[in-house]
Amino acid sequence: MADTGTIDLSEGVGSEFVAEIRDDLELLEPDLLAMEDEQSNVDAELINRAFRSIYSIKGGAGFCGFKDLGILSHSMENVLMRIRDGRLHIASEIVDALLSGLDKLKLMIEALDTGDPVFFEDEIRAFERILEQKENIDQPDKDQPDKDQPDKDQPDKDQPDKDQPVKDQPDKNQPCKNQSDKDQPDNEPMGKPHGEPGGPSHDVEMSSDKGIAENCLREEM
Length: 221
Known about the structure:
This protein is mainly alpha-helical. The chain has helices spanning 12-38, 44-64, 67-84, 92-114, 121-138, 203-220. Helix 3 packs antiparallel against helix 4 and helix 4 (92-114) runs antiparallel to helix 5. The N and C termini lie far apart (152 Å).
């Protein structure tokens, strides 16, 4: 709803500011229509002129105390400023929102005389969506991996695979070829053979044979 401000419009200063706002609104409309037609091919000077018009309207509204007029013109100024700075590309959706805001600014000026309410909440929300959409484009997507960072799920090519045995190390489950097999019999004889010096003595076998002969003699007797 448009407010009438704190300055008496019958005074010379107040009426002059309102007249300037009307002039700026008339200059702004053809520039917005040209932006809609040309879009990406629009001239930079045309964008600057549209920005200066809305900036002047906001300043006049602030001086006269037209709160609603100042709020809506400030939102339009933010959009035009981003277009001017190249941070926002001209599209039909954006120009349509600006033209709708322009129509509400005209009604607010007329309401200074008639006192009719002017509702502009839809226009404010449209500008907020445009600005939020641009902010989302400028920020990187958190769900997408950074191309400069390696994928944690992919193994590092410089690191060996833990599931593959290292070729330079012997397999622990295979016997070492350089060590003698403990299960194989030793080719070298243990100790010395019977009958040789230092070997097992024949006295045990001889004593055993002698005992058997004596037993046989006893049985025959």
